[in-house]
Write a structure and sequence with these properties.
The chain has about 300 residues and is of the alpha+beta class. Helices cover about 50% and strands about 10% of the residues. The longest helix is centred in the last third of the chain and has 19 residues, at about 210-225.
Length: about 300
């Protein structure tokens, strides 16, 4: 009888090590529509941004939906020759599917308003030197047309596309100012186009949809020339590249120096936050700004 009782107890409860291993298999934490997998107390796992976005969603603030790839993935990435856990891609696809359901649009949709996302780094402590934000990810040669049709604003759509290529080309693909160059190469192309197409020097607000279409072509040619690679047209490839760039930025020179100075352990890693885009520049009825739930001067409601 004693043997049988022992067997039942053993089968009914997993060892603590196996429980931790099973728990660690969750690499993507979702938030949005008033729900969140995480909370504000999970900064070691979700980073500062991810934990706060989860908490804001939990308390009912209208946070655009998204998901956080945990700091554990960053640790895994460097411990396993810059590779990812086998289950990560499926979890990211499930996260995108949840965002699609909340937003009512599809990632990579060429026939209707496409889901576009922003990708940001997010360590548990603020970390200067980490990757800059990438906006409008998901745009390509077909989704830009869908965005133009959905917003009835062709100029806006093509401006979003050229901004995305500029940010992604710089941050992910490494198209940056070379030694001996005085200005950013993308900005040089913008100034050259203004010179080619306009009699007088104009600011960006006066560039037309056709100007931005041509800039997209010139930007892509620059990326190809500098990197030997074509700009990625597949939204999933874009997303994977952006996530990889966030993890890569954890070990750039500025981040390493900052961690040494402030005694931040390398093994902490950074999280990646993927969030649905909302726009402040789609027309006269669209705007952007900052909102506070407390008076920032004294903390009162």
């Amino acid at each position: 009888m004693a043997k049988k009782t022992t067997a039942k107890k053993s089968a009914g409860k997993k060892p603590a090590s196996k429980q931790r291993a099973a728990k660690a298999l969750k690499y993507v934490y979702n938030w949005g529509a008033g729900k969140a997998d995480g909370n504000g107390g999970m900064k070691p796992l979700l980073g500062g941004k991810g934990a706060n976005l989860a908490e804001m969603s939990r308390i009912g603030l209208p946070v655009p939906p998204g998901f956080t790839i945990t700091t554990e993935v960053c640790t895994y990435y460097y411990a396993n020759k810059r590779t990812y856990p086998a289950s990560l891609q499926a979890q990211m696809k499930a996260g995108i599917a949840r965002m699609e359901a909340i937003m009512g649009c599809k990632f990579g949709d060429a026939n209707a308003m496409p889901l576009l996302v922003a990708v940001r780094s997010g360590a548990r402590d603020s970390m200067p030197g980490m990757m800059d934000t990438i906006l409008n990810l998901g745009l390509n040669d077909t989704t830009v047309i869908a965005l133009a049709n959905a917003t009835r604003n062709e100029r806006f759509a093509w401006d979003c596309y050229r901004r995305f290529i500029q940010m992604y080309g710089d941050v992910v693909m490494g198209v940056q100012k070379r030694e001996g160059e005085d200005h950013d190469p993308f900005e040089n192309l913008i100034e050259q186009l203004k010179h080619d197409h306009h009699e007088e020097q104009v600011d960006d607000a006066h560039l037309t949809a056709d100007d931005y279409k041509e800039l997209v072509a010139r930007f892509k040619a620059l990326v190809k020339e500098r990197t030997g690679k074509s700009f990625p047209n597949d939204p999933w490839e874009q997303l994977q590249g952006a996530a990889g760039a966030v993890f890569g930025s954890w070990m750039n020179d500025r981040a390493i120096v900052y961690r040494r100075k402030y005694n931040i352990p390398t093994e902490w890693g950074t999280a990646v936050n993927v969030q649905a885009m909302v726009y402040g520049n789609t027309g006269d009825t669209s705007g952007s700004g900052v909102a506070f739930t407390r008076n920032p001067a004294n903390g009162t409601n």
